[in-house]
Amino acid sequence: MEEQNFSLTPRNPLTELSELRFEIEPVEDEFDLKCRLKFGTMHYEYREREYIVGVSKAHLRLVLEGCETTFADVFGEQALAEISVDDSVQIQSALKGNVALNANTVTGASGEVDIGIGGSVVRTKNAKTQQKLLPVVAGPNDTWKIAPKTIFNKPEKFVEGSAIPSVRLCTIRRKQGGNRMSVLGEVHVSRSSIKVAANDGNRMGKSLSEWQNKNALVGLLLKKAIQREARSGGKSNSANAVCISRCEVVEK
Amino acid sequence: MRLLEDFLTEQEIQQIDAVFDSQSPRFDLLVATSGLNPISDFRFTDLRHLDFSGADLRGFDFTGSDLRKSVKNENTIIDQTTVLQDARIDWIEADALPIVMVMRKAEEARNSTERQDVLNRLVAEFGRTPHVIQYMVLAASKAHSIEDFIDFALFLPEVPSKSDAGKLRKSAEALLKRKLAASKRRTRREKTSVFAVESLTEKLHQNPGSLAQRIYGYLADVVNAKPQGSTLTGHANIEAADLRKAFARIGT
After folding, report:
1. N or C terminus: which one in chain B shows less Cβ crowding within 10 Å?
2. CB within 8 Å: A221 and B7
3. pTM attached to this predicted model
4. What are the tens digits of pLDDT across the range A87-129?
5. Is B82 left (phi over 0), alpha (psi -120 to 50) or beta?
6. Residue ranges covered by each domain of chain A
7. Residues of A with CB under 8 A from a CB of B
């Protein structure tokens, strides 16, 4: 099937905040779903004050009709943490440098070791967990979570940059009996993940509770405006989450 | 491309204006001014580091919100109608001092930072009522130094009443004269008295919407009106005389 047999409808109402775009590429009997997902921040300057609006966490969800994802690997696949255990026995000397290493050692049934002259044996067990913290993690049922972390494992204040840089997100295939394929992707953010920060510069605004309270309320007004804008023309938004970008690819 | 300001409605801009212009930073009064709804707009929101001193929080729904490190005191009203379900709470308890005590603390403050903290609390909890403004005008008029005067000016409304402006101008001009004379005495040169004004100009523009900020605006006007010869490209050359002229414009 040719690529031009699909029609694409992206909808990114908050142009500075997020962009979602799909492309479908046929590969033999299956299709690669390529995705570009970018996040940015919006700036609002008013009466000598500046506010930065962004999101700290988002979810990408796919709704597939007439097709399904295959078992091929998907973008952001995160394996469960690997634990490597290093179990070793160390002989420690009681005298510096010259304890006779030819002392008789007796290994008990418990696995402990006794040493004859002036020394002791310590059994050490080191466990090490290795895990990569991916900024985009594939979840169950065709979902992806976007939540970059700092090196201290704290979430970043704003997601900014390419989350999925125009690469294959997953592979899909036509469902048995399905005659028209459609792929809908939506980027959802919870209300608490929309962040507004006042850029106070060198003013003492931060130490003034007057402006802390005022900034918080201006932030809520901006968030409400963003939620309203994201909802306009969209559908199925809950009270506490909003869809900031969507893209639909439908077979003609 | 649509910017944030492009989709703010006239009503939302008016709401932001109302928050900016509010003379009382007390949380519940600000909310009433902003048009935000206490029942629906404060759920699942980031409300950390805010000041709820003296606020009447009855009827507010903070479900799922983060209120950590926010300040409350004995005068903060929370009852069974305040919804705190799943909210993250770690209050900072502040002393609830009678207004007279707070005013006395402002005058007895050992340094500028301490005075600003106290004035901050005064305005946050009691608002800029006529009584509070009258106190600050009186305290600024009796200030011992121009720095102390500016501390109060940072919390005074941008446009004081005619009679208040007269008192403030008289006091500020006398204090500034004393400051510049002391600076000149130290260096014995007229030109070097400019060093005295640097810290003052820096201090003046720290709180938007205040009398101090207005004086800073006057100073900008004075400097801009100077002949080209005395300004360097991109740099303002502020002289002691400019500062005198700016302070002389209080209430004009």
Report:
1. N
2. no
3. 0.69
4. 777 766 654 444 444 444 444 444 444 444 555 777 777 887 7
5. beta
6. 6-78+133-251, 82-128
7. 13-16, 42-44, 46-49, 53, 190-192, 195, 203-205, 207-214, 216-218, 220-226, 228-229, 240
